[in-house]
Amino acid sequence: MSTLDTKAISAWVAGRLPGFDGPVSASKFSGGQSNPTYRLETAAGDYVLRRKPPGVLLKSAHAVDREFRVQAALAGTDVPVARVHLLCEDEAVIGSAFYIMDEVRGRNFDDPRLPALSTQERGAIMDEMNRVLAAIHEVDIAAVGLSDYGPDGDYYARQIGRWTKQYRATQTDDLPDMDALIGWLEGNRPGDDGQRCLVHGDYRLDNLLFAPEGTGCVAVLDWELSTIGHPYADLAAVVMQWAMPVGPVGRGLAGVDRKAEGLWSDQRFVDAYCARRGLAGIDRFGFYLAFCHFRMAAILQGVKKRALDGNASDPEKGLMLGQYVPAFARHGLEAARRDG
Asked: Which keywords describe this protein according to UniProt (predicted)?
């Protein structure tokens, strides 16, 4: 694990951020497999630093500059984000690009069963998660300066191409299910329905911070995969996550009696989302689920490869997560078959 050169950070920040003076100490947040994240403790208060990982990286991966830009653009919208301050793209400072933002105090839940909460609070958390997702997709991208945040054209064609390329670049095993899933997605893309909006790209419960007391969302985290695209990919990603096994690895709701536990069904979440956005419903949801499984398999393959190469933020966890690539490919094919 790389260490953070706090002296170099202090020297670079000097004069750029009022109050950020004197000695700085840093502690790395646990978890996370992409951009290493640190708490910076200063005399003026605490901040958070996100950096690109060290080592040789795929060209389009770990885009901290994009994370910085989108969070700056969303300030003042209905989407809660941390206030960002500085972006350093000079890799000579600490060895990779980084940015600094406020630390937002809040509660983070990595188990969607929400065992520490009451049944009423669980439903409220899911409702807030739904509200924030709809808010992301309702952002006026022209008004906030994000019209060029992603290219025009077929979002799914672009995403399938991108993640297929990155999967091939990090592939370590022969997986016929992944090959079949890629082929099916390429041949079964839905027609363009005209929706073009901001998408988070990795929207799930553990990428949200909630108020220390209460169920309001205070920040959406980890915008690395955000772009301008199609909203149903984010929505299907939530449903996909809930189908995973319960526990610290799967972080899903498979086998849970959701009604008894005060948790929303997939359909209730989809219906509430559609109501918030004025949609009559969603056709061919199986395609979007298949796509999300494919993308997650490709992401985890990259995590596995970085772990094997010694560049992962948490190599041991990276290797463990990499074991799930075949399962995501298989579940993606199952969703594809249900889609017909």
From this structure: Transferase
Pair 235, 275: CB distance under 8 Å? no
pLDDT in tens, 65-108: 999 999 999 999 999 999 999 999 999 999 999 999 999 999 99
Tell me the fold of 119-339.
Aminoglycoside 3'-phosphotransferase; Chain: A, domain 2 (3.90.1200)
Report d(CA 285, CA 130) in Å as an integer: 17
Instruction: Give the least confident one: 147-151, 173-177, 190-194, 332-336.
Output: 190-194
CA-to-CA distance for 185 and 329, rounded, in angstroms? 12
Task: Spell out the domain ranges in the chain.
Answer: 6-102, 119-339
pTM above 0.85, yes or no: yes
E strands within 96-192?
98-102
Total residue length of the chain: 340
The secondary structure of residue 53, as a DSSP letter, is P
CA distance 28 to 310: 17
CATH node for 6-102: 3.30.200.20
